[in-house]
Specification:
single chain, Rossmann fold, six-stranded parallel beta sheet, 15% strand, binds adenosine-5'-diphosphate, alpha/beta, binds magnesium ion, 402 residues
């Protein structure tokens, strides 16, 4: 019901206009209006149990695809046996050279859906050049990791062009004439303006997480970038949703595209969602502390709203003896990567993050997402809780309300 209007912000519905979720300012625990109570109901939902009948039968096996044997061997090494639905649907069309729009939820394997056929293409024709545009640095890093995995042993070169990292290294890797360039819009634009990235040479383009790019205000940059690209080219758009602006963009920039839409239950349906009420007389951090002591909270992603708040909360948790770290926009790229790596490898059990820093992250086995501070809107909420309950695993989301 709420999904009909995901953009609607909470603040609009809380009468005090307090974007932090109408925290009771009276200090007397005075009863808040009904609107506030209604807001919180959308954070309470039982996970839907997956049933056998929903098991997916892929039409292809990776072995069936007409791809380079080296690539298939690397796919097998990565432990992939059957393609996911989006891979099953998109890979044959991309291999045929068609433009593709792929719509599927987070965690459904969109990365390999575009990487595999494009790697195959570069194996076949050395002159092929691929530009992958993504909304965040973390996502760019993840895609490069996957690329390295699938192209291992081939000598395929790639360049990562992301903000917050030294441009000199990027200039060096661009000078080596890479087949793949993966970047965020701002840095790509910067490199083009410096005449270090010759975008007109690229005849393959991927826009990944297009809906996030739209939300993050990158649409103008994307139009700028795509307009500079070579024709004819193969263009691929991947997104979890297809807002109107995106379909308009697709109409303009894609050539007779095949649209593959994977209808599946929202990722959030795998997630048990509940609220944690904080009594005004209690200290919020104490409530969190007690919660984190529960044995079932094994790998916890905590969301705060501001960079400063996230930093402070991680420090306070460390002071209290928890193994925690944080990621947010004010941290250097290497600090962010380090925190992510430690969390992924279970060296720390708690990661505190801002919305932007956590966007698109694929961290295995997060048992709980805690919304220590409310998200800006319901769509951000869905993105946050989508970090747990990936694949068919059940996840848990707890939202602090006061
Ligand atoms: P999306 O981009 O749709 O959010 P990702 O491409 O990040 O999803 O994939 C999510 C996870 O699933 C990754 O850990 C990836 O390695 C894994 N994965 C993708 N495709 C397969 C497959 N065919 N078999 C097994 N695991 C897969
Ligand atoms: Mg993705």
């Amino acid at each position: 019901m709420f999904k009909k209007n995901p953009k609607k912000t909470f603040s609009k519905r809380t009468r005090g206009g307090n974007r932090f979720g109408a925290r009771s300012k009276s200090g007397r625990g005075g009863k808040r209006g009904m609107a506030d109570e209604l807001d919180f109901t959308q954070f309470v939902k039982k996970a839907i149990q997956t049933t056998e009948t929903e098991t997916y039968n892929p039409r292809h096996r990776f072995a069936d695809f007409e791809m380079h044997s080296k690539l298939k061997a690397n796919v097998a090494l990565a432990g992939y046996v059957h393609p996911t639905p989006i891979q099953d649907g998109a890979i044959p069309h991309i291999l045929k050279g068609r433009d593709v729009i792929g719509i599927a939820n987070t965690g459904t394997g969109k990365t390999a859906a575009f990487l595999l056929p494009l790697i195959h293409k570069t194996f076949k024709h050395q002159a092929e050049k691929v530009l992958i545009i993504v909304p965040t640095r973390e996502l760019a890093l993840q895609i490069e990791d996957e690329l390295r995995k699938f192209a291992a042993g081939s000598g395929l070169r790639s360049a990562l062009c992301i903000g917050g990292a030294h441009i000199n290294d990027q200039l060096r890797s661009l000078a080596r004439d890479p087949s793949f360039v993966i970047g965020t819009p701002g840095r790509l634009k910067d490199l083009i303006e410096r005449k270090k990235l010759h975008i007109a040479e690229f005849n393959n383009i991927v826009l990944d997480e297009v809906d996030r790019m739209l939300d993050m205000g990158f649409i103008k940059d994307i139009k700028y970038l795509v307009a500079l690209m070579k024709e004819p080219r193969q263009s691929l758009f991947f997104s979890a949703t297809m807002p109107r602006e995106i379909s308009e963009l697709a109409k303009k920039f894609l050539n007779d595209p095949v649209t593959i839409t994977i209808k599946s239950r929202a990722t959030s349906e795998n997630v048990d969602q509940d609220i944690v009420r904080v009594d005004p007389r209690e200290e919020k951090i104490e409530v969190l502390h007690n919660l984190l002591l529960k044995p079932e909270l094994q790998k916890v992603l905590i969301f705060g709203r501001t960079k400063h708040g996230v930093d402070k909360l991680a420090h306070r948790l460390v002071e209290r003896g928890f193994s925690a770290d944080s990621i947010h926009g004010d941290k250097s790229q290497s600090q962010r990567q380090r925190a992510l790596r430690r969390f992924s490898k279970d060296e720390i059990t708690i990661l505190v993050a801002t919305d932007v820093a956590a966007r698109g992250l694929d961290i295995p086995d997060v048992t709980h997402v805690i919304n220590y501070e409310l998200p800006e809107n319901y769509e951000d909420y869905i993105h946050r809780i989508g970090r747990t309950g990936r694949g068919n695993k059940k996840g848990n989301a707890l939202t602090f309300v006061d």
